[in-house]
Design goal:
about 120 residues; about 20% strand; Rossmann fold; alpha/beta; single chain
Length: about 120
């Protein structure tokens, strides 16, 4: 399964990439903000996107909406420290396929993504 990781923190991208590759996922790209995520989504056509919410230039909810508009069947799982109920609801309404709260542990991430494999 090909994955695009979107997070403005390099450390988070590296951590997720290591976890995912160790568990049989293929990380085909990374993006540091929502605008980059949309471009990379178009170029790389990933099977799944992990998307942070709070990022510079364009946040994850706006990027999620743009990706879902282009590809309604696109799979996007939000990964964010913003576990407030309103943010989770907003992401689900915008079309998110799941939500993983930071700080995360490997089991939690793999469990959250395994249903898409």
């Amino acid at each position: 399964m090909k994955v695009l990781i979107v997070d403005d923190a390099v450390f988070i991208r590296l951590t997720l990439k290591a976890m995912l590759e160790k568990n049989g996922y293929q990380v085909i790209g990374e993006a540091a903000n929502g605008s980059e995520a949309i471009l990379k989504y178009n170029q790389l056509k990933p099977d799944l996107v992990t998307m942070d919410i709070t990022m510079p230039q364009m946040d994850g909810i706006a990027a999620l909406k743009a990706i879902k508009k282009m590809d309604p069947s696109g799979k996007v799982v939000m990964i964010s420290a913003m576990g407030q109920e309103s943010t989770v609801k907003e992401a689900i309404i915008a079309g998110a396929n799941g939500f993983i709260v930071k700080p995360f542990v490997e089991d939690q991430v793999i469990r959250g993504l395994s249903k898409f494999k």
